[in-house]
Amino acid sequence: MMATLFASLAPDTPGVATARRLVAAGRRESTVVSYNGKFQRFATYCAMARLCPLPATLSTVLAYLGWLSEEDLVHHTSLQPYLTAINSAHKDLGFEAPAEGRVITLARKGFGEIEAAERGAPPAHTALPSSVVKQILIRGLASSDLGVVRRCTAIVFLFAFFARADSGVIALRSDVTVSEQGLEFVENGKNLEMMRPATLVLPWG
To answer: Minimal CA–CA distance to 95: which of 56, 40, 124, 67?
Structure first.
């Protein structure tokens, strides 16, 4: 993307090097890795089908969805990140996003309907019961294994603060503080801006 964005400017143009850093810093590394991998999957399909991946047409994206359905490796509930990666690559370079709109919505719905009819409906997800979280808390308090304590603490905190799963994975001791207001947790996550982390408070009582 960078090469295309700045192709019209000489490498030594004042501000270009920093502009590259600004654009790169606009997304978390994990997001970049995810988008790149999923767009590469789309590009690989296009090469196989002799289609243009960028800019892609609506028909190309629909054919890709059909191929994903036939391949049966990506399921209906996981489709959105693949479409988002395609749209992001196009918008970054000033093209219209081809993987959105009414027809894409219909195709996604049809993807799910055919998947359910041919392979069965996916299992329903339910909330983690508070009684289970209590048992996890008790186990963590009773354990002398720091790894077990950390994992139990992460689960309990995510439950108590309704935080993201990746926030628990990267949480540090410094992210947790005790104040007069209550227990505070600075939530960091791949989709949260580093300059504005979310501070969650669990009031006493």
So the answer is: 56
